[in-house]
């Protein structure tokens, strides 16, 4: 029993060291910088926490129907077979796959504030039909 208690104490102390003590200096520097921005910022008075989160993280809603409505096409139309196939595949994707598509096409897997309609999304034909 005494050995088991020592082992648990060791695990607790080691965990505390890894999660707290080993990063204390870096975390304190981060906290000071963060507080300099937030504590003196008018953002704290202008926005509620959920609004700040939306500004920082973007919209949590992945509405690809909205993106389809605002997409523009170059040398295609929304009625082109390849475009219909594209949207059919997109709409059948999982949320994670849709996030990956956003990451690939925009450089970010986040939806902009205001939703997908705020994105500029263009599908363009490249090269001749024989090159595809």
Question: What does this protein structure show overall?
Answer:
- It is elongated and about 75 Å long.
- The chain starts with a helix and ends in an 8-residue tail after the last strand.
- The chain has helices spanning 2-19, 24-39, 43-46, 49-57, 64-70, 81-92, 95-106, and strands at residues 72-74, 122-124.
- It is mainly alpha-helical.
- β-strand percent reads under 5%
Spatial gap, N to C terminus: 71 Å
Form type: elongated
Q: Taking all residues together, what is the mean pLDDT?
A: 85
- The domain count comes to 2
Stretches where pLDDT is under 50 for at least 5 consecutive residues are: none
CATH superfamily placement of the largest domain: Hect, E3 ligase catalytic domain
Structure summary, number of beta strands: 2
Q: Please give the share of residues in helix.
A: 55-70%
N-to-C SSE series? HHHHHEHHE
**Largest sheet, spatial ordering of strands:** 1-2
What can be said about the biggest beta sheet? 2 strands, parallel
Give me the secondary-structure topology.
Layout: H1 2-19, H2 24-39, H3 43-46, H4 49-57, H5 64-70, E1 72-74, H6 81-92, H7 95-106, E2 122-124
Pfam families: HECT (PF00632)
GO molecular function, one term: ubiquitin protein ligase activity
GO biological process, one term: protein polyubiquitination
Name some characteristics of this structure.
Hect, E3 ligase catalytic fold; two-stranded parallel sheet; Hect_E3_ubiquitin_ligase; 132 residues; transferase; mainly alpha; E3A/B/C-like
Brief description of this entry?
The protein is mostly helical.
């Amino acid at each position: 029993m005494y050995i088991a208690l020592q082992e648990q104490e060791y695990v607790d102390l080691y965990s505390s060291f890894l999660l707290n003590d080993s990063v204390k200096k870096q975390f304190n520097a981060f906290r000071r910088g963060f507080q300099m921005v937030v504590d003196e910022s008018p953002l704290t008075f202008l926005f509620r926490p959920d609004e700040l989160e939306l500004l920082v993280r973007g919209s949590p809603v992945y509405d690809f129907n909205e993106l389809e409505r605002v997409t523009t096409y170059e040398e295609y139309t929304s009625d082109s077979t390849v475009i219909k196939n594209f949207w059919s595949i997109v709409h059948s994707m999982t949320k994670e796959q849709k996030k990956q598509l956003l990451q690939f096409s925009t450089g970010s897997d986040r939806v902009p504030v205001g939703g997908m309609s705020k994105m500029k999304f263009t599908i363009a034909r490249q090269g001749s039909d024989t090159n595809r």
